[in-house]
Amino acid sequence: MLVRLTPDGVKAAARLAEARAARFSAVLERVPEGERADVLRALTILTEAMDET
To answer: With contact defined as beta carbons under 8 Å apart, do 19 and 26 qualify?
Structure first.
């Protein structure tokens, strides 16, 4: 079975993704600049580990 979003669903998903990206950016700005690369690397490792389960 294939499930697709309606046009309204596509718009809602895009708004949600934009809001999530804005929230993440705001949080990341509170991390000291010299530590941001380390935080992003750790998040990448964590995300990849989650995808493997």
So the answer is: no
